[in-house]
């Protein structure tokens, strides 16, 4: 037996968790196929990497060069490898015992991005590529600062070919290229771009060419002059503002305005040299680690140091800075990790593939009405949301862990060169966002097929747009950073951005040795911004999904959280309809005294706020709005009804009469247009969650999980009804036995393999498990064979002892067997109400006489019947067979028999019969009368 009171939160949560785990067990192979997808894509990446290694990384062109040398002159050559036997491309990979000295360079902005001071030049220099480069000065002593700024740059350029590095060291060399990961070949030297010399003025014919390096790593460079503009600013605040207002986003007129460097001389004087230097270190993610940018800084330090020495000792004093170089290196190989470069596209697909799985599951429950049927049996929104979310989160987390294990096990640097906890933290945040989005988006779909198509378009579209559009914008220096932020608000791009950062780190790590993305680098990388975006969107999506779900379940009421939860007696607007409506109802229903009496009984109960009856309906109406020019459809028209506990009330009516609409209103599927209804004292419009805790439903169509067995269905719904332990097992066994589902192992077979009759019996068993206080059954015996139907009727009749049951049916036999009272429902109205005997007595006060003769004796039969009963009415006539209704108060059965015997002596009677009125006759008569009245009314 059920425990007193509804099931607790934990009990209901336990029920749905067990159901989900069982469902997951039934779909184990689907999960295996899902997990195989990331494994398959990881294998594809390994294959691509292997192909790239064989064709690129390990190709002869990307190794130190070798030649076959005949050292002994005997015609036999020996393969010797080294720098002297290599091409320029191969020389990069050779051992370099004595690295090439490279002159120090300063990083300057490209011409279109240089700051322009209107006092010295105009905007036209941007078009002519002749804008000067700006160096700012500030400090406590302006005269000292102006002196040092004059000493900073040379006024002319001289070069001695015999000592090239010395000549270059006497000049200020610059490049627009940031330093590379290694200084064995400086990108500013080996590129096709010119090197600049910064001078206070650029004289005509100031371009020079020079050659640097030893074969094969020798390069000829063109050197162009660029004017250096030293400007004084009154404070470091001005310098700071001028630097940052022009970086990337541009200044007030939208133009980028970058400077070379800025010097804050602070309290420098003749006895104290104290300087702060600003330099460009803001290009995140483009050249890897911060240390590569520092290669351009030493020359800035040397310049201001020499300027200060000249201030103290005269123009001939300087510290010569000839070159920079690295330590000797061993022979190396090309180590481009192509899998990391294309990994973001593949892993975007892998992680986003979880969305269609989650979305399809949610929409399937919505499409099959499984969510609402669970709610009708007592599963509240709280347990459903918590367990469903945790359930999907556990599956997603397991999926992500498998992905990381697969990727690491087969050697993908994308996983090996990034800290595992850092990776998992990012993936964990995103799968939470993805689950929230799935809950949110599921409200927009009603069919699994549509949801699946849209979800997969999102998956593959996000990967392709990320790989071929968003990545292009990330790597392009001209794309505004603010727009990058806006694009990252799209979840697919925020995921791609995180994967891109992992890939770049893995790529750099494969070139320069392992350098993991760790938590200590979090604030210095782009991952902080992306993570914050994901966290905010996660909570916003989750709250929006819950809010929309509550709106849907509260009848599209956006202010559902303001509803009043007081007992039904405090809803006077629904209790007392207007006098005009009362008079109208009475005038139409004047001849239906039984219906009027039921309505008066309901009104009296509403005034007394009585809760003695399990179900009370007061003038329920449901009108569907007209569409395509059709008038509104009145499905239920002012229904008033009471059903006490222990009674089975049967609703009879033709198809389209409104029976199912009434059931849908009472079960919360449809909101009434007006009127009120109360179940166990709770208003169905405002307290449906409380109603569900004591309700059972057998819907018109079976709502079952195809992969769960009959026993598992009953265990789940039994737990929702607060059954536990032995009581639960006993109730399940009794339900299976009563529904005739125990023999042949049917109880432990998936419901998808049940016949229609088996599913129907299971649906009835589900509605009755846990002894609910109120049960709605919509045509429960449809599709059953006579034996099963009789057995099911016995079960329902036994269950109604402590339960109020409302049952709709087309079977008159079922109605007479089960129902204590009947109501005939036609065109949305209750036409009559009473027990079967009362209805037959009220609407069936006649016998039906059937007689078959030859056609020429039809008149004789009519005369015979008129003699017996002058008010007899012919209701049927075809080919000699006639039927007559004979009022019971005009004739006795013995008189009819005597008249038939007399007729047999006068003419041939082939067959005859006398029958009492059946419930079917009553139903047909009432339905025809009501339909005829509606046509002419």
Automatic annotation (TrEMBL):
<dbReference type="GO" id="GO:0140359">
    <property type="term" value="F:ABC-type transporter activity"/>
</dbReference>
<keyword id="KW-0067">ATP-binding</keyword>
<feature type="transmembrane region" description="Helical">
    <location>
        <begin position="453"/>
        <end position="474"/>
    </location>
</feature>
<dbReference type="Pfam" id="PF24526">
    <property type="entry name" value="ABCA12_C"/>
</dbReference>
<dbReference type="GO" id="GO:0005319">
    <property type="term" value="F:lipid transporter activity"/>
</dbReference>
<dbReference type="Pfam" id="PF12698">
    <property type="entry name" value="ABC2_membrane_3"/>
</dbReference>
<dbReference type="InterPro" id="IPR026082">
    <property type="entry name" value="ABCA"/>
</dbReference>
<dbReference type="Pfam" id="PF00005">
    <property type="entry name" value="ABC_tran"/>
</dbReference>
<dbReference type="InterPro" id="IPR003439">
    <property type="entry name" value="ABC_transporter-like_ATP-bd"/>
</dbReference>
<keyword id="KW-1133">Transmembrane helix</keyword>
<dbReference type="InterPro" id="IPR013525">
    <property type="entry name" value="ABC2_TM"/>
</dbReference>
<dbReference type="GO" id="GO:0016887">
    <property type="term" value="F:ATP hydrolysis activity"/>
</dbReference>
<feature type="transmembrane region" description="Helical">
    <location>
        <begin position="424"/>
        <end position="441"/>
    </location>
</feature>
<keyword id="KW-0472">Membrane</keyword>
<dbReference type="GO" id="GO:0005524">
    <property type="term" value="F:ATP binding"/>
</dbReference>
<feature type="domain" description="ABC transporter">
    <location>
        <begin position="615"/>
        <end position="852"/>
    </location>
</feature>
<dbReference type="InterPro" id="IPR003593">
    <property type="entry name" value="AAA+_ATPase"/>
</dbReference>
<feature type="transmembrane region" description="Helical">
    <location>
        <begin position="384"/>
        <end position="412"/>
    </location>
</feature>
<dbReference type="InterPro" id="IPR017871">
    <property type="entry name" value="ABC_transporter-like_CS"/>
</dbReference>
<feature type="transmembrane region" description="Helical">
    <location>
        <begin position="341"/>
        <end position="363"/>
    </location>
</feature>
<protein>
    <recommendedName>
        <fullName>ABC transporter domain-containing protein</fullName>
    </recommendedName>
</protein>
<dbReference type="GO" id="GO:0016020">
    <property type="term" value="C:membrane"/>
</dbReference>
<keyword id="KW-0812">Transmembrane</keyword>
<comment type="similarity">
    <text>Belongs to the ABC transporter superfamily. ABCA family. CPR flippase (TC 3.A.1.211) subfamily.</text>
</comment>
<keyword id="KW-0547">Nucleotide-binding</keyword>
<feature type="transmembrane region" description="Helical">
    <location>
        <begin position="34"/>
        <end position="52"/>
    </location>
</feature>
<dbReference type="InterPro" id="IPR027417">
    <property type="entry name" value="P-loop_NTPase"/>
</dbReference>
<keyword id="KW-0813">Transport</keyword>
């Amino acid at each position: 037996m059920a425990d007193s009171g509804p099931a607790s939160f934990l009990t209901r949560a336990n029920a749905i968790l067990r159901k989900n785990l069982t469902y997951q067990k039934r779909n184990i192979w689907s999960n295996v196929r899902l997990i195989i997808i990331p494994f398959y894509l990881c294998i594809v990446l390994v294959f691509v990497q292997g192909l790239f290694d064989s064709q690129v990384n390990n190709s002869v062109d990307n190794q130190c060069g070798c030649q076959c040398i005949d050292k002994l002159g005997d015609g036999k050559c020996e393969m010797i490898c080294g720098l002297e036997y290599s091409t320029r491309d191969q020389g990069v990979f050779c051992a370099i015992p004595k690295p090439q000295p490279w002159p120090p360079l300063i990083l300057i902005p490209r011409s279109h991005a240089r700051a322009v001071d209107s006092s010295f030049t105009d905007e036209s220099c941007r078009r002519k590529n002749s804008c000067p480069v700006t160096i700012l000065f500030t400090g406590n002593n302006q005269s000292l600062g102006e002196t040092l700024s004059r000493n900073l740059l040379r006024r002319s350029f001289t070069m001695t070919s015999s000592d090239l590095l010395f000549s270059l060291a006497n000049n200020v060399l610059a490049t627009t290229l940031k330093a590379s990961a290694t200084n064995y070949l400086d990108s500013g030297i080996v590129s096709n771009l010119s090197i600049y010399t910064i001078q206070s003025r650029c004289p005509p014919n100031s371009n020079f060419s020079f050659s640097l390096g030893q074969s094969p790593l020798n390069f000829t460079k063109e050197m162009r002059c660029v004017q250096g503009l030293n400007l004084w600013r009154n404070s470091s605040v001005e310098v700071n503002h001028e630097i940052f207002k022009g970086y990337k986003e541009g200044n007030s007129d939208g133009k980028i305005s970058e400077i070379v460097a800025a010097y804050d001389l602070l309290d420098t004087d003749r006895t104290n040299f104290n300087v702060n230097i600003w330099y460009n270190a803001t290009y995140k993610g483009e050249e890897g680690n911060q240390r590569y940018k520092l290669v351009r800084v030493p020359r800035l330090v040397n310049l201001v140091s020499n300027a200060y020495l000249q201030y103290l000792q005269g123009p001939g004093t300087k510290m010569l800075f000839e070159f920079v170089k690295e330590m000797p290196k061993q022979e190396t190989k090309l180590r481009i990790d192509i899998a990391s470069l294309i990994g973001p596209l593949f892993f975007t697909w892998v992680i986003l593939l979880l969305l269609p799985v989650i979305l399809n599951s949610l929409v399937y429950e919505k499409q099959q009405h499984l969510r609402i049927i669970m709610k009708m049996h007592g599963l509240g929104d709280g347990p459903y949301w918590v367990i469903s979310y945790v359930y999907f989160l556990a599956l997603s987390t397991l999926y992500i862990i498998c992905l990381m294990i697969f990727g690491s096990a087969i050697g993908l640097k994308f996983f090996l060169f990034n800290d595992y906890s850092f990776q998992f933290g990012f993936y964990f945040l995103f799968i939470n966002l993805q689950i929230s989005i799935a809950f949110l988006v599921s409200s927009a779909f009603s069919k699994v097929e549509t949801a699946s198509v849209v979800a997969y378009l999102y998956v593959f579209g996000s990967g392709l747009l990320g790989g071929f559009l968003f990545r292009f914008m990330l790597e392009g220096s001209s794309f505004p950073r603010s727009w990058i932020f806006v694009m990252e608000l799209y979840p697919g791009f925020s995921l791609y951005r995180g994967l891109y950062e992992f890939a770049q780190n893995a790529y750099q790590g494969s070139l320069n040795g392992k350098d993991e993305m760790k938590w200590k680098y979090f604030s210095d990388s782009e991952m902080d911004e992306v993570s914050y975006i994901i966290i905010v969107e996660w909570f916003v999506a989750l709250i929006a999904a819950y809010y929309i779900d509550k709106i849907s379940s509260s009848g599209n009421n956006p202010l559902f959280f303001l509803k009043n939860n007081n007992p039904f007696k405090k809803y006077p607007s629904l209790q007392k309809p207007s006098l005009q409506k009362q008079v109208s109802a009475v005038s139409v229903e004047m001849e239906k005294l039984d219906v009027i009496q039921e309505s008066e009984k309901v009104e009296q109960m509403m005034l007394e706020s009585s809760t003695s009856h399990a179900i009370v309906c007061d003038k329920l109406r449901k009108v569907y709005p007209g569409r395509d020019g059709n008038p509104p459809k009145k499905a239920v028209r002012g229904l008033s009804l009471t059903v006490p506990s222990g009674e089975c009330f049967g609703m009879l009516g033709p198809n389209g009469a409104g029976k199912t609409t009434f059931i849908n209103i009472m079960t919360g599927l449809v909101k009434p247009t007006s009127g009120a209804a109360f179940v166990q004292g709770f208003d169905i419009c405002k307290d449906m969650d409380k109603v569900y805790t004591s309700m059972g439903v057998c819907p018109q169509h079976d709502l079952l999980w195809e992969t769960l067995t009959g026993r598992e269905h009953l265990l789940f719904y039994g737990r929702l009804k607060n059954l536990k332990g032995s009581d639960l097992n006993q109730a399940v066994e009794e339900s299976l036995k009563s529904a005739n589902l125990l023999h042949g192992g049917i109880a432990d077979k998936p419901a998808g393999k049940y016949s229609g009759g088996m599913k129907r019996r299971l649906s009835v068993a589900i509605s009755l498990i846990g002894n609910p206080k109120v049960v709605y059954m919509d045509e429960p015996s449809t599709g059953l064979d006579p034996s099963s139907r009789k057995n099911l009727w016995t079960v329902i009749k036994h269950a109604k002892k402590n339960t109020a049951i409302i049952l709709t049916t087309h079977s008159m036999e079922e109605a007479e067997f089960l129902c204590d009272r009947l109501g005939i429902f036609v065109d949305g109205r209750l036409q009559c109400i009473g027990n079967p005997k009362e209805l037959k007595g009220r609407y069936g006060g006649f016998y039906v006489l059937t007689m078959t003769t030859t056609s020429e004796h039809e008149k004789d039969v009519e005369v015979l019947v008129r003699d017996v009963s002058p008010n007899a009415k012919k209701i049927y006539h075809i080919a000699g067979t006639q039927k007559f209704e004979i009022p019971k108060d005009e004739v006795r059965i013995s008189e009819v028999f005597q008249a038939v015997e007399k007729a047999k002596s006068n003419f041939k009677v082939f067959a005859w019969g006398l029958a009492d009125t059946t419930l079917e006759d009553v139903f047909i008569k009432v339905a025809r009368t009501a339909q005829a009245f509606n046509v002419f009314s």
